[in-house]
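Minutes, project check-in
Item: structure for the 261-residue chain
Input as provided by the requester:
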Amino acid sequence: MKSTAHIKGHPIHPILVGFPIAFFIGTLLFDILALASDRYDFAFAATCMQIAGITTALLAAIPGFIDFLFTVPPKSSGKKRAAKHGILNVLNLLLFVVAWLLKRNPAVPAFVILLLEITGVVLLGFAGWMGGTLVYRNQIGIFTRYAGAGKWKEERFAGDQQKIQVATSNELKTDQMKLVHVHHKRIVIGKTAEGYVAFDDSCTHKGGSLAGGALICGTVQCPWHGSQFDVNTGQRKAGPAQQGIKVYTLTEENGKVYLQL
């Protein structure tokens, strides 16, 4: 799915995470060198990198949290993985903050600080592994568009109306989709050769976002594991999913498409 926190379609979080990873690992390495050689310049370099790591980690967390709230599909395996990813990164950050504060106290043994930093780097590795899984398996932040899919469209609607205008008759091209947020629901508006359709965004297998998948010949395919559904009936057609998806009624009046809830 396209990242919510992005610059011209490029997700910001992956751009920033490389900095705290490099700074935190560098902190540990230079603290080990400082302890082994008893050199102040190594210790000073480690402290500078530690401060830089803490700062850039906080900066990277902002777009990451935005994507967690608005990009990762809710009630999905990806959401649980993203939560664990965030928790591990927070714990890693806290360990390096505590280590930095303890460095200011000469009475604290150096091995205590090193133990905190080693633990932090290990947690950083696990968090990075989960982050990679979110990108390459759950496709969070990957803007995959197939031929004719058009630009990504997403819109939010407030209020409690039971009939909501979600598109215009010529807004979408054939096999193009649009994700709308209505009544705390994520609903996909799509256009087939026969006309407009509406269905739940969540795949019934692992909760992948169908809006980020492909709509071809009246069939939508989940981008995560390939489950396929008939967008007119909601019936499961193929894949690991065992249940169909919910479909909604659409009406067209005077060139406008309305969703009936």
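Outcome recorded: Helices lie at 12-37, 40-70, 77-103, 110-136.
No further action items on this chain.
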